[in-house]
């Protein structure tokens, strides 16, 4: 039984969606919460199991087209994630996981597939595969989140509707395909960034912890994260 005071993290469908180290997002979130003295309980929910609606932070990763379609169908049918978001849980969705949060996304042949409808976005198939390092500047309305660094590998392009705001503006890379990368609405963040995203951008992990707990996370020693960030940024921005 989960204890009342623990931070509850839910990792959705690792059997279908978890490419390019996305599971590292769960580890980073757990570690950053524990380093602040919180107790953490993580549930890995396979696609054959119901998604509990009692979590505080939900994470979902990227994947190939076929498992992405399956994941969207199962999440729609299950309803647990919808109930969790309705009660104010935070959600971090990466690449395929990001696309399926929208109204539609492109299937294996580019055919429109129904998403789960938690974000006002629509994705389709682009003209080429976007592969490589991505750098982007975060919407200042989210507070002091430094330049995003990550890795992208997707065919999809994403159009943002009125109900969401761009997470960031791309400096290097493709992201949504229109000069923006990812989006946010309420306590949901979607992004194309792998890497894993929260290891390369721990400030995003802290944003999720803040949303989940209502308390600004205390500063911690981020020397190693910072070294990784600088190495990655220098690899694509010669002046960094
Ligand atoms: N299948 C999706 C696309 O190519 C998502 C890929 C991914 O998650 N890396 O757009």
UniProtKB/TrEMBL annotation:
<protein>
    <recommendedName>
        <fullName>Lipid II isoglutaminyl synthase (glutamine-hydrolyzing) subunit GatD</fullName>
        <ecNumber>6.3.5.13</ecNumber>
        <ecNumber>3.5.1.2</ecNumber>
    </recommendedName>
</protein>
<comment type="function">
    <text>The lipid II isoglutaminyl synthase complex catalyzes the formation of alpha-D-isoglutamine in the cell wall lipid II stem peptide. The GatD subunit catalyzes the hydrolysis of glutamine to glutamate and ammonia. The resulting ammonia molecule is channeled to the active site of MurT.</text>
</comment>
<keyword id="KW-0315">Glutamine amidotransferase</keyword>
<dbReference type="Pfam" id="PF07685">
    <property type="entry name" value="GATase_3"/>
</dbReference>
<comment type="subunit">
    <text>Forms a heterodimer with MurT.</text>
</comment>
<keyword id="KW-0436">Ligase</keyword>
<keyword id="KW-0961">Cell wall biogenesis/degradation</keyword>
<dbReference type="InterPro" id="IPR029062">
    <property type="entry name" value="Class_I_gatase-like"/>
</dbReference>
<feature type="binding site">
    <location>
        <position position="129"/>
    </location>
    <ligand>
        <name>substrate</name>
    </ligand>
</feature>
<feature type="active site" description="Nucleophile">
    <location>
        <position position="95"/>
    </location>
</feature>
<feature type="active site">
    <location>
        <position position="194"/>
    </location>
</feature>
<keyword id="KW-0133">Cell shape</keyword>
<comment type="similarity">
    <text>Belongs to the CobB/CobQ family. GatD subfamily.</text>
</comment>
<feature type="domain" description="CobB/CobQ-like glutamine amidotransferase">
    <location>
        <begin position="8"/>
        <end position="201"/>
    </location>
</feature>
<dbReference type="InterPro" id="IPR043702">
    <property type="entry name" value="Lipid_II_synth_GatD"/>
</dbReference>
<dbReference type="InterPro" id="IPR011698">
    <property type="entry name" value="GATase_3"/>
</dbReference>
<dbReference type="InterPro" id="IPR033949">
    <property type="entry name" value="CobQ_GATase1"/>
</dbReference>
<comment type="pathway">
    <text>Cell wall biogenesis; peptidoglycan biosynthesis.</text>
</comment>
<keyword id="KW-0378">Hydrolase</keyword>
<keyword id="KW-0573">Peptidoglycan synthesis</keyword>
């Amino acid at each position: 039984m989960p204890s009342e005071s623990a931070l509850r993290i839910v990792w959705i469908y690792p059997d279908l969606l978890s490419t390019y180290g996305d599971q590292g997002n769960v580890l980073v979130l757990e570690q950053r919460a524990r380093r602040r003295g919180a107790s953490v309980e993580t549930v890995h929910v396979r696609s054959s199991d119901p998604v509990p609606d009692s979590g505080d932070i939900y994470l979902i990763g990227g994947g190939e087209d076929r498992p992405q379609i399956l994941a969207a169908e199962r999440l729609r049918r299950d309803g647990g994630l919808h109930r969790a978001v309705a009660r104010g849980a935070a959600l971090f969705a990466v690449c395929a996981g990001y696309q399926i949060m929208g109204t539609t996304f492109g299937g294996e042949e580019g055919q429109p597939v129904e998403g789960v409808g938690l974000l006002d976005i629509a994705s389709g198939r682009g003209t080429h595969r976007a592969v490589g390092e991505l750098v982007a500047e975060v919407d200042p309305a989210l507070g002091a989140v430094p330049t995003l660094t990550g890795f992208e590998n997707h065919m999809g392009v994403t159009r943002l509707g009125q109900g969401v705001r761009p997470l960031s503006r791309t400096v290097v890379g493709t992201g949504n395909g229109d000069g923006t990368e990812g989006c946010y609405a309420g306590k949901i963040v979607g992004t194309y960034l792998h890497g894993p995203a929260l290891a390369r951008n721990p400030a995003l992990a802290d944003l999720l912890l803040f949303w989940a707990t209502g308390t600004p996370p205390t500063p911690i020693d981020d020397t190693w994260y910072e070294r990784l960030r600088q190495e990655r940024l220098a690899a694509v921005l010669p002046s960094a």
